[in-house]
Design a protein that fits this description.
alpha+beta; 376 residues; eleven-stranded mixed sheet; homodimer; five-stranded parallel sheet; 22 strands
Chain lengths: 376, 376
């Protein structure tokens, strides 16, 4: 049986393993925390640091194929494994390009892919020279995740919050909507494109908040956004599953924000709303099977359920009520500890139209909570 | 987190564990074979014999709830566990009643549930006295499974094949169709009823062959069959998930064949064809959540993929082609060894109408195989 490894054992790894169940594959996970969400669902769990060369190399060298569920992995080890015949999906070269926000932005510019204007800075001193470029968003080149490593700089007073490290200073765009397209590409260079989704972010935590599918945009906008995302992914020339995040600005221009070379939060609805989920699709790529069907079965709205209140052993409030709502699918990530803002689960609603579902979803947000205390 | 144990680790246990993923539950499995399909998907695996009192009792005594994926379990241990506060679903009393084909048939008779006429025999000698009752089916009271423990007795020459053990001798019914209804019942006595399915059996192996949903019968027949199945399940007065198998005879009479007190082969299509699958539904019962939605999303046809040829390490033939067929869902049970007739996986097809799907399914049967040799 084919041996496939996953670097990282969070909720994305967990849902990837859930989707592996129908396929003949031996699954391996590397992750520091043996109590992580993915640990009990894989065939073989290895405790180790996905950012450490030795750990990743030792984990990967007896595997046939390897993929990731998070970008913060040791790419040198993946390159060595690839040179020794382990198939890495996507190719380490692409992971390296994407992991660094500077090279990622340069890639868009070199490929004439529309993206917000930017300059590269290496220090706070260099930032001062770019005062006229503000308002802008400063993004650290490496190490940012889930809103960390990003600073909005509006005026000179904000410059001290800039990064003393290689970073991208990106012109602030007046955003009307945030969109995302997920695209799968296999070793035969065939592609499968998921319907455009729309994301509404929580202004305080910068975690994906409500996600709508299909996106509520003009069909022309949707096809333009999809075409741009396809251009991004085809340029990588690597098999993989990619989530391309885009901005629609107030002038209806589409700009690429960033790309994730993996299964992604913006694709959780695909588990129920689409025949071949993003997780199923990645297995098809890994197992050299035909790509799956990406047609939307039903409009959907997805909300993340994040930790509230204090940190501590996870307590779930209001979850039992969810089971009685038709068309509602609750996913518990089984994380032992809740922290404010930590993704603890998600809810997908399916139904007739997105607007009604969105109202329903907003109603749920006040009823459901996961916190580190037994009181809400 | 609630600790739930499953007795048995075959494909039903595997699919039950797959469905557990969204819920906050700690899963435990007891099974002799540590390489069984369910082993790698549970949180805690225990090697042990589900028919042995000590093994089942030791496994269950630290759990909150316990259920089964096969009837051949030690019921005495479950009774002791239940008396000590472990919740057993369904109740051991019902498992005992169903496990023995004699008491099961007597239950139908006592509850005025239509079933084929029968007499009880304890030896081959007693069979001889029942010669006028032939043609009939002789079913051993305990220990039969998947077609074993059943003999069709047509005339006096066949009597030597009867069982020298307590058994039911059941009048042979001229069968037009075989039907099944799955019904869930929770601790509040609420019920959820799945759409009627129709099963076509392979005449040689007696393993479920093609299963259609909805059953291709008159709506009146469907509602009668469903009402009878509900009568069967309500009489048990126990929470659980039950599959009631029925015969439609050539006179359009509906007769109960037998009941399984667990997730069942006739409900595999519910994974994709119905919002709350049979596996999801059992978790809802176990976790005291509301029952799920049983409406059919799409007509479906399901076929079992059984081992062919010789016994040996499992080789899959033609499986890769399946991935390219829209509306087709392949489930591999990941059994290490293939044997002729052994259930190795199943395929569910969704689409516009059952007849077209059935043609498609019959076409697949010649293309797909799992055998114990690398040659087809």
């Amino acid at each position: 049986m084919l041996k496939v490894g996953i670097l990282g054992g969070g909720q994305l790894g967990k849902m990837l393993l859930e989707a592996a169940a129908p396929y003949p594959v031996e699954t391996h996970v590397l992750e520091n925390d043996p109590e992580c969400p993915a640990a009990s669902l894989c065939d073989h769990f290895t405790t180790g640091d996905i950012r450490n060369f030795e750990d990743v190399y030792a984990f990967g060298k007896s595997l046939d194929k390897i993929t990731i569920e998070i970008e913060q992995v040791n790419i040198e080890a993946l390159e060595k494994l690839a040179s020794e015949g382990v198939v890495v999906v996507p190719e380490p070269r692409v992971l390296r390009l994407i992991k660094n926000k500077i090279s990622q932005k340069q890639y868009y510019r070199e490929h004439q892919i529309p993206t917000a204007d930017f300059v590269i800075t290496h220090s706070r001193q260099e930032l001062i020279d770019q005062l006229s470029f503000l308002p802008a968003v400063h993004k650290i080149g490496e190490g940012g995740y889930d809103g960390k490593g990003v600073q909005l700089l509006t005026n000179a007073n904000d410059l001290s919050r800039g990064f003393e490290a290689p970073a991208v200073l990106e012109k602030r765009v007046p955003i009307k909507k945030e969109l995302a397209v997920m695209i799968a590409i296999n070793e035969k260079n065939e592609t499968a494109i998921y319907p455009l989704v729309e994301m509404c972010f929580d202004p305080t935590l910068n975690l994906l908040d409500t996600q709508l599918c299909p996106a509520q945009v003009d069909p022309l906008i949707a096809s333009q956004a999809t075409a741009i995302a396809l251009q991004v992914v085809e340029g990588f020339r690597s098999p993989g599953l990619f989530a391309v995040e885009l901005f629609l600005d107030t002038q209806d221009q589409i700009l690429v924000n960033e790309t994730a070379p993996r299964v992604h939060n913006s694709g959780h609805h695909t588990i129920e709303a689409i025949e071949s989920s993003q997780f199923d699709m990645l297995w098809r790529i890994l197992l050299s099977l035909s790509l799956g069907d990406t047609r939307l079965r039903s409009p959907s709205v997805m909300i993340n359920v994040v930790g509230t209140g204090t940190s501590g052993p996870a307590h779930y409030h209001g979850i039992n009520e969810l089971a009685s709502i038709p068309g509602l699918f609750w996913h518990c990530y089984e994380k032992k500890v809740a922290k404010p803002g930590r993704k603890m689960g998600h809810i997908t609603l399916l139904g007739g139209d997105v607007n009604t579902l969105q109202q329903q979803a907003l109603g749920l947000k006040s009823k459901v909570a996961v916190s580190g205390s037994s009181e809400r």
